[in-house]
Structure formats: structure tokens, C-alpha cells
Amino acid sequence: MARIKNIELPSEKHVCIGLTAIYGIGRSLARQICEAAGVESSKKVKDLTDDEIAKLRKEVDNHLVEGDLRREVSMNIKGKMEINCYQGVRHKKGLPVRGQRTNRNAHTRKGKGKVVANKKKAGK
């Protein structure tokens, strides 16, 4: 049972896949970390020795991950919102930030459709 940065790595997965459970580590960075630590990336997490886990921990410490990365990202977003740049305004309004269309998609950002009260047509 390997714990790195207070995240328990899934024991049935390969090391390079298990490392992606840590926020800020993707597949390519996980592969680089395995190479730098001298750990076989095809090895299962449950088969790692304490020495190998220590090497992985030391290597992960060289990168910005988990809480520090989350904090930095949220501070970047708050900074954009404070200076009222285009992206900051989109964040405030809860709309897509990176130029996506919104008239028929973007329901994950915009939420469920808001019902507008029926307007009665002028009678004849």
C-alpha cells in the first residue's frame, strides 16, 4: 500500500498509471518520474519495495502537485477575475472560458436550462 503526497495509489495498477491518481501528474510525467527514480513503470504498485516507494516520493517532491498546484491554479483564476480580463469575466459568469460555443452546448458549465415564463401572444 503506497502513499505518496497523502494519496493512496491503486495497488492493482502499474506504477506509471497509479501515479496519475495524484493531482498534477499525467501519463507522460509519471513515465518521467519512473525513469528518474529507476523504477520499472510496468511493475504493479503492490509489488513495490519500500526503497522504490521512497525514491518515487523523492522524485514527486521535485514537481508541483496536489495542494500547492490546486492553490496556484485557483490563485491564477482569482487574479484574472480581479483584473476583469475576458477569461476572468467568463469565470465569474460560469461560462466556457476558452472560446467554445454556448448556444447549443456548454451545459456542464452553464447548468440546466432556465425556464423563461410563457409570454402570452396579443389577443385578436
Explained architecture:
- The protein has 124 residues and is mostly helical.
- The protein folds into two domains: 58 residues, Helicase, Ruva Protein, domain 3, CATH 1.10.8.50; 45 residues, 30s ribosomal protein s13, domain 2 (Irregular), CATH 4.10.910.10.
- Helix content is 44%, strand content 3%.
- It is built from six helices and two strands; from the N terminus they run E-E-H-H-H-H-H-H.
- It has a two-stranded antiparallel ribbon.
- The longest helix has 17 residues.
- The chain is elongated.
- The mean pLDDT is 90.
Brief overview:
This protein has 124 residues and is mainly alpha-helical.
Q: In the CATH scheme, what's the topology name of the largest domain?
A: Helicase, Ruva Protein, domain 3
The strand order across the widest sheet is 1-2
Q: Which CATH-level-2 architecture of the largest domain?
A: Orthogonal Bundle
Structural class: mainly alpha
Q: Which whole number gives the mean pLDDT?
A: 90
CATH class of the largest domain: Mainly Alpha
Shape: elongated
Assembly state here? single chain
User: How many alpha or pi helices?
Assistant: 6
Count up the domains. 2
Radius of gyration: 23 Å
Beta strands, count: 2
- Which parts are unreliable, with pLDDT below 50 for 5 consecutive residues or more? none
Tell me the major beta sheet: 2 strands, antiparallel
Element-level helix/strand string: EEHHHHHH
Tell me the helix content.
Answer: 40-55%
Our measurement of the CA-to-CA distance between the termini, rounded to an integer number of angstroms, reads: 76 Å
Strand content: under 5%
